[in-house]
């Protein structure tokens, strides 16, 4: 499962709580966490939580960010990609599904690229959105507006599965 999220923790403590719960869930379900390779912010929290429960964690970080995002050297596997595009491509190739947690512009970039690739049938992987405390409400409203205005090729619910808790994801996993 690829996890896309912030290299910062954000202001709402629920973001960190959900990141930790997700790391625990993936480890206990024996699902390898594939993420951006950093040790800061929500990225670090989800990775550390998975490791705490003896989970497997693969991080993929571009060479450019090995210092600013402070790569996580304690994970199962750390891959250093040439650039951001290579990083995203590897993240998508190595995952069977993805979940988006709160984050910044980079997280949105990754989310929309996943959705675009899904729309173009480059892949057909499930994309979950952990809408912690309504973090993504405005984005979901805008996606619905794009659909209602005739700009999308398929219904939004076929592209993205919005969740409000980690327990909702757990109910969908094998």
3D architecture notes:
- The chain has 174 residues and is α/β, with parallel strands linked by helices.
- The protein has a single domain (2-172), classed as Rossmann fold.
- It has helices at 13-28, 41-52, 84-94, 105-119, 137-148, 166-172, and strands at residues 2-4, 33-35, 57-62, 77-81, 97-100, 126-130, 161-163.
- The strands form 2 sheets. Strands 1-5-6-7 form a 4-stranded parallel beta sheet, with helices on both faces.
- Helix 1 (13-28) packs parallel to helix 2.
- The protein is globular.
- The model has no long low-confidence stretch (mean pLDDT 94).
Runs in which pLDDT lies below 50 for 5 or more consecutive residues are none
Measured on Cα atoms, how large is the radius of gyration? 15 Å
Distance between the termini: 12 Å
Structural class: alpha/beta
Strands side by side in the biggest sheet: 1-5-6-7
User: Which CATH class?
Assistant: Alpha Beta
Q: From the coordinates shown, what is the CATH architecture?
A: 3-Layer(aba) Sandwich
Per the CATH scheme, the topology name is Rossmann fold
Mean of residue pLDDT values:
94
Largest sheet: 4 strands, parallel
What's the structural domain tally? 1
Helix proportion: 40-55%
Work out the number of β strands: 7
Number of helices: 6
Percentage beta strand: 15-25%
What is the element string, with H for helices and E for strands? EHEHEEHEHEHEH
Morphology call: globular
Features:
globular; 174 residues; 3-stranded parallel sheet; Rossmann fold; 6 helices; alpha/beta
State the gist of this model.
This protein has six helices and seven strands. The chain has 174 residues and is of the alpha/beta class.
């Amino acid at each position: 499962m690829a996890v896309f999220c912030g290299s910062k923790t954000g202001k709402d403590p629920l973001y960190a709580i959900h990141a930790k719960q997700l790391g625990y869930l993936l480890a206990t379900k024996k699902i390898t966490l594939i993420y951006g390779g950093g040790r800061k912010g929500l990225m670090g929290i989800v990775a550390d939580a998975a490791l705490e429960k003896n989970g497997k964690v693969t991080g993929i970080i571009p060479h450019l960010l090995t210092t600013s995002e402070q790569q996580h050297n304690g994970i199962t596997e750390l891959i250093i990609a040439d650039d951001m595009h290579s990083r995203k491509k590897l993240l998508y190739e190595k995952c069977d599904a993805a979940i988006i947690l709160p984050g910044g512009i980079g997280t949105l970039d990754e989310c929309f690229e996943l959705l675009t690739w899904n729309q173009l049938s480059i892949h057909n992987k499930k994309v979950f959105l952990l809408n912690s405390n309504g973090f993504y409400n405005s984005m979901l409203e805008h996606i619905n507006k794009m659909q209602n205005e005739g700009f999308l090729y398929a219904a939004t619910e076929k592209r993205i599965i919005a969740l409000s808790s980690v327990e909702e994801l757990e109910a969908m996993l094998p």
